[in-house]
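Notebook B, p. 112. Complex prediction, attempt 2.
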Amino acid sequence: MSQLDEKWQERWQKAHLFEPKDEGGEKFFLTPAFPYPNSPQHIGHGRTYTTTDIYARYMRMKGKNVLYPMAFHVTGTPILAMAKRIAAGDEEIIGIFEKIYGISRSKMAELTDPNALVRYFSEEIEAGMKKMGYSIDWRRKFYSYDPHFNAFIRWQFEKLREAGYIKKGRHPVPWCPVSNAAVGAHDTQGDIDPQVEEVTAILFPFLDGYLACSTYRPETIYGVTNIWVNESAAYAKVKSGGRVLYVAKEAIPSLSMQLDLQVEGELSGREMTKSSAANPISGEKIPVLGASFVNPAHGTGVVMSVPAHAPYDFLALRDAGKLGEIPLKQVLRLDGFGAFPAEEICRRMGIASQSDPKAEEATAEIYKKEAHTGVMVVGEFAGMRGVEAKERVRQKLLSAGSAIPLYEISNGPIYSRYGGLVGVKVVEDQWFIDYGDETWKQKARECLALMKILPEKARKEYEYTIGWLKAKACTRSSGLGTRFPFDESKMIEALSDSTIYMAFYTIAHIAMKMKPEQLTHELFDWVFLGRKSAGLAKEAEEMRRAFEYWYPLDSRHSATDLVHNHLTFFIFNHVAIFPEKYWPRQIVTNGFVLMDGKKMSKSMGNIIPIRQAIAQFGADTIRFVTVSGADLSQDSDFNRPAAEGVISRMEAFMEIMERHAKEKDGKVGMAERWLMSRLHKRLLAAPALYETLQLRELSLELFYNTFNDLQWYLKRAEKPQLREFFELWVPAIAPFVPHFAEEAWERLGKKHYVMDAPFVSVAPFPKGDESRVDESLEEAEKYIGLLIEDIKSILRILRREKAGKIEIFVASAWKRKLREIAAQEKKFDSAMKLAMADEEIRAHAKEAARVLQAYMKSAGALGKTPAEEFELEALGSGKKVLESEFGCPVLVSKEEGSNAPKAAFSLPGKPSILIS
RNA sequence: GCAGGGGUUCCAGAGCCAGGUCAAAUGGGCGGGACUUAAGAUCCUGUGGCUUAGCGCCUUCGGGAGUUCAAAUCUCCCCCCCUGCACCA
């Protein structure tokens, strides 16, 4: 297998088969999402690239000048984080590299340098792609941190700024206080993605300042009966923005990421309870009480108490023995509950105290119900649903200065790889790309409407995403990539520098040979926008021509997970920068690859590195299995039996070809005509399937079902001759299994029936010929097939191996008439009436009633009635097959005139059988 | 919660848009048989139940209700699963 793969890969390379000229004929430009080289690739990565490759190869065979380029995305922090982890001797990652990918420890020692790491893994990935036989033009390779590419991205941002889409503001980000940097999932212990959530800190007048109570449910301010503090914790008096606040001491580190705080004094939780506070809405005086459930490190460490609706508050109140003393106050009405849902649920669940773990469950249930089905019964928002009131109350408190917005990590506590507890920092000087801009959105929608989306059902996802996209933070304080042109201390983050790089491919092979400083904004203005200015580099004209030739992008490919970000940004940025004639034409998204039905994951260790898989099964097998296992949008499954099934069929195809396709075909008989009819039908259907990437359907048609046809044909043909068949079939399947196809193409030698080409990879795609499709022949063959089934099942029931003689009776004319009536009338009564009007049928009234009854069951499904001549003809030609199949004489006669009782069982299309 | 995608016979997975030929393709697994010294591969065959010289009956396509001569397919309600809701590549 691998020898064969290499043989053809070398020859393709030597012939520069996949390096198109920047001119000539109809072009087709397609790109998959470029890989991120911080690990080797596994079998799952291969699906998108294989899908793209099959498309590229098909288009090439359709005579298009195809460009399929590749580059590497290294932007952002994951590569840096990976190098650091290796340097730090992180056993988890080292173990994965060693066990799954077979990278030696000495090799890993070199990968502590990010550049070395990029080089190593990108070479690894490139080698893998070559071994998969991808028809990539590697001359255009670049890395997203190359200075040439940087120049291009800086130009892009200049254009975005000119269009008014770049903005500056403040932004909350997950932050590690130890490394003093923003953190993403790859920076946290356990790779947890920190979720930032907005909360509200309501300020309750207290002593000389305010108690800051952070809450998710500001709307319950109307039901506050008291304030909770943790009596065993330390509290602090702090000054912030000219105001005095009281918060837990432990909360200060995380709060100071967001607020400017000066500590002015300290007091114990117990001291706090000696004073009372006031409700900022009503001015009502409320006590400050102690509760053990209050976590001083969480939020502000001060909690407002709404015992009617919050189970913890109710339980703490009960634990404090204050139930009777402090009356509960209802805020929301909830179906199925009385005035105080928290109380009810605590009693119903039998929760003992605030330290009972069931309290958490009760809280989750009540919160969820109240938020969505609860209706406010107090205050100015009475009658409003919980969720809506929440937002309104929050805004009201914020604008009145009675609350401050805070952020927290909702899925915490999360620790960074450097040991810090991840908090939320509000970053000033954050730059954004404003995807919330309405006129921009409108243009994006226009582009989407013009594009083909495969599978089409994904279109709604794009529409939805365009709808909800808001300003996106586009800079980071660290990472690889391109410096932000309007603040050189910042880096452009990874989803923002990968939106129009497809345009760079069109000139990359020229640009990468130039000096980076030659790649000026003026040059790009000319190349991409046609705005000419003086003194451009001498390559400018060639670049302009290349871009104008290849753009727009004909097809963009990725897995489905990029729809909500990258692919939508891709649309936005194209419409922002390029004129309409260069807007992308199509986006194709595919599902993932499962391993034995399960998601691949590092922790399960069920990842097959792509190069290992190729070594084991061969490139064609991996290609075939990953794309043919499921519809485009569904996850496909990779498993050994499927892979082996493909291998054995390929071998069988090759063997049959070697045996029966040596010479030009001789006299063509029924069997050959039948086989070619089947093949041409499939060839006729193939183009539409290839164009819409229905690879599963194609693989079924051109591979599995065709294989079954061949089996039948071999059984049927007296002297098999398959020369024409293989000359047509090999190129048809070539996009899927190019190495196999090249080998077969070569072994076929000089072609007799199709146009020859040095490589099947660039041979014309075989045309289906309608005149070769013979439906009646196929019908006849099917008829014989069914008959064989029937005879076999009768033999089985008789427990007989062999028949002495088989007699077949073809149904009489009156039954055919009856069947026609049944098919037309569809209702028993009227059909019967009509039938009885026919003399011939009436002569068999009793039997006619029985037969009609049977037909009525599937009245509309009857289709056209086979003619008697058809059946006799089919039987005439099929008789030989039947005789050889069963090794006995076969007699064919008509039901009419026969006195065999069995004969009466015959139906049109379903002759009766008598075995003796 | 919002948005999208799903729930099919032992498993995977078609079919559903355009209702009937659907007990439901195809592959896998499993049972039986052929071949073989044997295993593997390959081939034949079975794989909801009951029947039976096939052409037959009953029950089934997440649950329920409806439309229709006819529903896996159309309509309505409900249940369950997956993905996304960003600043992360």
